[in-house]
Amino acid sequence: MNQTADTGDRPETARKPWFWIGIIIIGLLAAAAIAHFVVGIGSKGDRNRRLPAPVAIAKVTYADVPETVSALGTVTPLVTASVRSQQSGRLMEIDFKEGQTVAKGQRLALIDPRPFALASAQADANLARDAAQLNSARVDLTRYRTLQSQDSIARQQVDSQAALVKQLEGTVGADRAALGTARLNLTYASVISPVSGRIGLRQTDIGNYVTPADTNGIATVTQLDPIDVEFSVPQAQISAIQARLGAGGGGLPVTAIDQSGAPVLAQGTLLTFDNVVDTTTGTIKAKARFANPGGKLIPNQFVNVAMLTGTLHHAMVVPVSAVRHGQPGDFVFVLQPDKTVKLVVVKIGPMLGQQVAILAGLKGDETVISAGADGLEDGSSVRLPGDKSAGGKGAGGGGGGKHGHRHKSQSGG
User: Fold this and answer.
1) Would you list the domain boundaries of the chain?
2) Which of 104, 109, 230, 399 is most exposed, with minimal Cβ within 10 Å?
């Protein structure tokens, strides 16, 4: 009886364990909120105590900066000639070494010339025979005309003799053409180079029977000097380039650079543009011509191309390392008199070595942060080269924290 009564008198909370679980969860959340608040205060204090960052600086200077169009180009020879025999015959001689430089008209190979020499001799003999007959017919025609004037022979005989002379003249003319063809075929026995250039690997050997229909021919000669480089130019720059050409600029200077970026291979000039824009890339093909006496440019070689389109005279320049890139765009940190920095958005132009032109954003008398800008914010304090190591109150740490906080507030707003 007593035990039953005691059970009925327990508090309602004692019979509900979920009540205590809720109390525990609420306590944990409250503890987390307090900890977050304390850590936030501590981190803000750390920011307020942040030491000025050591940086390097550079003055804005002025220079003439060339404006160039850079592209990847392909070396293209003016002429690539496949040397083939113009007659069928057995190859008797090969008069070149693979890779050597040959001149236009130089003999490269010899096909057995004996059949062509015999054909030439036969044509020569036919011409001599028919020419003798023609001379005899002409003499007879002269004699017949004399007799006709004396009424000694009929006119029909004179006309027949005149027709014979005409016939023999035609025969002699055909013989002369046949002799010319035979002599030409004899010259074709000598395979000559059609252009000056470098000859490649031979495609046949002595003793082989060659014909004009051979696909590979005997060898290939490539003209190397001068030589062209083809590259593509964005269509947005075509108008400016054409305006420069139309203003009497002549062929724009073009430089071919090795893909390693170091040595300049050749200097040339812009030759022409293609007549259509490639709709898939939005570019137009251009061709530049280069003198290539040393053979540094090799057909089908890839090179970097830099075409000079103009010059920015007395342009503001800063070190490339001073330009930062972020959400505002391109910007630099400008040093202020109180050794803080100001974030200034700029518009950059072409590069000149390790410097870049500034087209807008700076006045020209500023000092910019050239190194050590990682982690800086608008208003951050900095330590310049030669300054004593910052420490304690004299370090200016409070100023840096103040400007950094202001920058963050502006960003957040």
Assistant:
1) 52-60+316-389+397-412, 69-78+224-312, 79-113+190-222, 114-188
2) 104
